[in-house]
Amino acid sequence: MTEKFAIIVGSGFDEFVGAEDGMLASTPFGEPSSPIRDLTIGDRVVRVLSRHGDSHAIPPHLINYRANLVALKNLDVGTVIALNTVGVITAVRGPGELAVPDQIIDYTWGREHSVQGATESGVLHVDFTKPFAQGLRDRLLAAASAAGIDCHDGGVCAVTQGPRLETAAEIDRLERDGADFIGMTGMPEAGIALELGLDYACLALVVNKAAGRGDKPIHEDVETSTLSVRKQAIELLQQFFAYTHNPKQ
Fold first, then answer.
1. Nearest Cα to 97, choosing from 153, 51, 48, 54?
2. Which of 108, 176, 191, 226 is most deeply buried (CB count within 10 A of its CB)?
3. What average pLDDT score do residues 166-188 get?
4. What is the DSSP string of 176-209?
5. Is pTM, for the whole model, over 0.90?
């Protein structure tokens, strides 16, 4: 059976979303953030969902993560690549570079973190020791290598509530906790994906140095780095789907 993929995109990927209407999906948890569209990459047709909505109007804490992932699951998607823009806390990466994190720390609150309810099958305590599918991580890193793209293997991503950015003191605390990157959308997305049995990994686009770590305003840092790192991400994905189609490549 052919593996079916989806990409969940954040801001700055209008070319992935395109102008087509896409599929409107409904789930027991409501509608997903956007219509789900088909994008052809190489010989693959990949489902694409815009995490913040087509107009980027949904802030991180109000995203319907449950509906997004259940809608993809209902379309027989089994593998999800999440594109997340992040800031960098430590020296593992710099703005304009990519990473495939291997761990996550959840600092969010008030979000719907599970698709589980009171069912006859009881409560499922998923093992979240390794939050990202290692096989999928390996394939992303192999694609980066094949494309000649420098992509960091590993790192801990802290997920904060947003939508405001952090204070310098908060970033210091996160570094003491062991975080390398900081974003706002990795959780509960990763946990719900695991509950649904989806292979899920994050491709992190580093667009700025975290609060108190850079020598320029954060938004200026983001503006300078976004175009370059987005181009690298697209090239990596193009290579990934070529590599997936022909594993001997």
1. 153
2. 191
3. 97
4. HHT-SEEESSSTTHHHHHHHTT-EEEEEEEEEEE
5. yes
Task: Please count the structural domains in the chain.
Answer: 1
Q: What is the CATH number of the domain that holds 69?
A: 3.40.50.1580
Place of tokens 């102008």: 19
Can you tell me the distance from the alpha carbon of 185 to that of 82, in angstroms, rounded to the nearest whole number?
10
Beta strands in 101-231 (DSSP E): 103-106, 151-153, 156-159, 181-183, 199-209
Residue 227 domain flag: yes
Q: Is 96 left (phi over 0), alpha (psi -120 to 50) or beta?
A: left
Stretch 189-208: mean pLDDT? 96
Q: What is the pLDDT of residues 97-153, one digit of tens each?
A: 999 999 999 999 999 999 987 455 667 888 999 999 999 999 999 999 999 999 999
Amino acid at site 100: V
CA distances from 42 to 26, 79, 204, 237 (A): 29, 17, 22, 10
59 prior amide bond cis, ω within 30: no
Cα separation of 97 and 206, whole Å? 5
In a domain, 124, yes or no: no
Looking at the DSSP bridge assignments, the partners of residue 99 are 152, 204
182 is a domain residue: yes
**CA atoms within 13 A of residue 79's CA, in its CB half-sphere:** 16
Q: Which residues form the domain of 84?
A: 5-109+129-245
The Cα–Cα gap between 36 and 103 comes to: 28
- How many angstroms separate the Cα of 1 from the Cα of each of 5, 41, 77, 78, 194? 13, 19, 12, 11, 21
